[in-house]
Amino acid sequence: MNSLIRSTAKCLRTGAAVYLPRHTDGRVWSASARFLCAAADVPKDLGEMVKKDKVVVFMKGTPAQPMCGFSNAVVQILRMHGVDDYAAYNVLEDSELREGVKAFSNWPTIPQVYFSGEFVGGCDILLQMHQNGDLVEELKKLGISSALLKAEEESK
Asked: If pLDDT is split at 50, 70 and 90, which confidence band does 44 have?
């Protein structure tokens, strides 16, 4: 409780506080909370975070060391398409970020993928897009040419 009071006071001092209601069990209400305390190490303006890069992934672990199978699958799918330049946020390092991104997207699971500020989905959605070819088209809209498409063209 003391850490909550300290972080709230820190946010109030910086003028960056926004009320984010929580259930008694600590879960965030499902209401959209686009801003969290900006006083912490990671910028908490989720709206800005998802727009900062063409591709943004909120995941467990890092691309170099994913800490769950679903996060690993997202990293591998992006890698297969040659997408190496993307922002990745490790939600295991910041519980407020972890809960905040779930409320922001109204999506209950991690990882979460964003393209140009728009929520795409989680591992299941990205896998489906990869399998049916939609991912190649969505990457093209971002100005990213899929490595899989290049390999297919070169093999012809």
From this structure: low
Spatial separation of the C-alpha atoms in residues 52 and 127, rounded to whole Å: 24
Q: How far apart are the first and last CA of the chain?
A: 63
Q: What angle do CA 118, 114, 79 make, to 5 degrees?
A: 145
Q: How many CB atoms lie within 10 A of CB 114?
A: 25
Question: What's the pTM?
Answer: 0.70
Quickly count: other Cβ atoms within 10 Å of residue 36's Cβ. 26
Residues 59, 147: Cα–Cα separation, whole Å? 23
Neighbours of 149 (CB within 10 A): 17
Tell me how far apart the alpha carbons of residues 46 and 105 are, in angstroms, rounded to a whole number.
10
**φ, ψ for residue 127, nearest 5 deg:** -65, -45
For residue range 115-124, list pLDDT tens digits in order.
999 999 999 9
